[in-house]
Amino acid sequence: MSYVRCQRCGRPTCPECQRPAAVGIQCVDCVNQAARAVPSARTMFGGTVRGGRPVVTLTVIGLCVVSWVLQLVTGGEWTQRWAFAPSVGLDEPWRFLTAAFLHSTSVLHILFNMYALWLVGPFLEQAFGRARFVALYVLSAIGGSVGYLLLATPTVDGGWNTAVVGASGAVFGLFGAIIPALRRMGRNAGQIVVLIAINMAIPFLFPGIAWQAHLGGLVVGLAMGAGFAAAPRERQALVAWALPAAVAVVLVGATLWKYASVGWL
Question: Whole-angstrom Cα distance, residue 198 to residue 40?
């Protein structure tokens, strides 16, 4: 039996539980208690500083790639099950989100979106923290579908019966959110603004691209990024959940209003 005592609590500790410290030997319980008492490092936006890989960004990319493979191997069945179209969104509201994990069969579509996600995702995930980043991505994706619902031609034989897929709405949300984040950090956001302008112009040059979804995601991302960036430190925890909740309410309200305005409710 060991008679070495912990320098913090004074209890005897066995060799397996001894931990060297600056003031001598401590027991494992005291070491764990001290670790919990140390506040975690925070970014200027309130996110927890984490090392290692951007887990959320990589997870989203992985889900999109797996989903795209399923689209190919199921002959379109996977796409039909999860794609969004306003004509089916009221009865199957999960499609507002699931469409963001689908892409066209063209490899360029998914490569472009995943590359764009990788450009800005890790930065925002680190700056805002994982929880805020998840909320930003999910609500921007839903905002893209809501933008299409609001701006597409509200007829079954028009835009409302056209399925839309792709992570573009969510990616544009990240583009929008990074602008106020960079400005809050005192950095130049001009390159991002130019990139957004170029990508917003592409749908008007190449038909078949849902610019409405791009705009919807961009608006949501700008709003959420501005809110996270402007929150004072003492209210960052409150804004972290209150802002996504408020945006979700607005998106649901806009969706119900649109369906009601055309007599679908």
Answer: 40
* Sheet strands (E) in the chain: 18-21, 24-27
Residue 162 has pLDDT above 60, yes or no: yes
Percent over 70 (pLDDT), the chain = 91
Indicate the SS3 state at residue 188.
Answer: coil
User: For position 153, what pLDDT does the model report?
Assistant: 85
Q: Which residue has the tokens 């305005």?
A: 261
- Given 40, 106, 168, 261, the catalytic residue: 168
- For residue 21, count CB atoms less than 10 angstroms from its CB and return exposed for 0-12, middle for 13-18, buried for 19 or more: middle
Among residues 67, 103, 109, 214, which one is catalytic? Answer: 214
The SS3 of residue 57 is helix
40 is a catalytic site residue: no
Q: What is the pLDDT of residues 28-71, one digit of tens each?
A: 777 777 656 555 688 889 888 887 899 999 999 999 999 999 99
8 A C-beta contact, residue 214 and residue 173: no
Please say if 103 is a catalytic residue.
Answer: no
pTM: 0.84
